[in-house]
Amino acid sequence: MKLLFAFAGCMALLSLPGHAAQATAVQVPTAGISSSPAPLRAFVFRPDGNAKHPAVVMVHGCGGVYGKDGQLNARHQMWGEYLAAQGYVALMLDSFSTRGYQQICTTKFSERTLKETDRVGDVYAALAYLRQLSGVDPSHIALLGWSHGAGVTLEAITHRPAPAIGSGFNAAVAFYPGCTSRNKKADSFHPYAPLLLLIGEADDWTPAAPCKTLVASVAARGEPMQIVTYADTFHDFDSPALTGPRLRKDVPNGVTPGAGVTTAPNPVAREDAKQRVKAFLAEHL
């Protein structure tokens, strides 16, 4: 495996079958912050202990929060449990259900009515919610997203919240975001907090090359952005539910529109990414 580094500058308790942990289902108020027509559903994973803990807002990709069984999908459950085990309150945010979406992966970019920018208000609503939640240290909160949610993360970490919300996030992590359009405007991309990207070099859905170029440009200005890429690794590499490569012909976007995109697990990269996220959050929260 090749690693490439760029320069760094409530509502109810749900028992999730087959999993050791439980997540509390909550409603995140959105009035005046998010474009959502109603409060957003979310799931909170808590660490042991009564002290105030740092927190992480987690942002799903185009496939939404849930698996085929209607429960949190395996990736979100895994990361929620993992972050809680590291001492973080982890909030998994659902941006889709209140807006009537199940998924948008199979919709062409040009036909999507919900953009990454439309979800930025969602993450700041979640930030405001966590800051008043018992057991959370309101001055130490990070943002973590995947794919479409990683794009939301890049948008949010370059646009500070309204003064009424207060300061923004302390750090952000983006798993395989789309960087092509952002790289074309690299001069205007300015993360206000440390930002870590993790992506596979073989990703044919959201390619790594524009992300590497973007990070190089931003880091060269001395701004806090870094990247780790994994050789021979595809989109969704951290998902514990994938058992092998899958060509998704139903996805019209990607490097070669119409040809489909590849998702595939990489357990070694997944475990490496977990350790890097752990170290990154420990450094900045």
Q: What can you see in these coordinates?
A:
With 285 residues, the chain is an alpha/beta fold. The protein contains six helices and twelve strands. A ten-stranded mixed sheet has the order 1-10-9-8-7-5-6-4-3-2, with helices on both faces. Helix 3 links the parallel strand 7 (136-146) and strand 8 (171-175). Helix 2 packs across helix 3. The protein is globular. The two termini are 29 Å apart.
Topology readout:
Elements: E1 3-5, E2 12-15, E3 22-28, E4 40-45, E5 53-59, H1 74-85, E6 89-94, H2 120-131, E7 136-146, H3 148-156, E8 171-175, H4 180-184, E9 195-200, H5 208-220, E10 225-230, E11 246-248, E12 261-263, H6 267-284
Parallel strand pairs: 5-6, 5-7, 7-8, 8-9, 9-10
Antiparallel strand pairs: 1-10, 2-3, 3-4, 4-6, 11-12
Helix pairs in contact: 2-3
Shape: globular
Count of β-strands: 12
> How many distinct helices?
6
Helix-strand topology string:
EEEEEHEHEHEHEHEEEH
- Helicity range: 10-25%
State the strand order across the main sheet.
Answer: 1-10-9-8-7-5-6-4-3-2
Structural class: alpha/beta
Largest sheet: 10 strands, mixed
Given as residue ranges, the uncertain stretches (5+ residues, pLDDT < 50) are 1-20
**N-end to C-end Cα span:** 29 Å
Determine Rg (CA atoms, Å): 17 Å
Percent strand equals 15-25%
Mean pLDDT across the residues is: 93
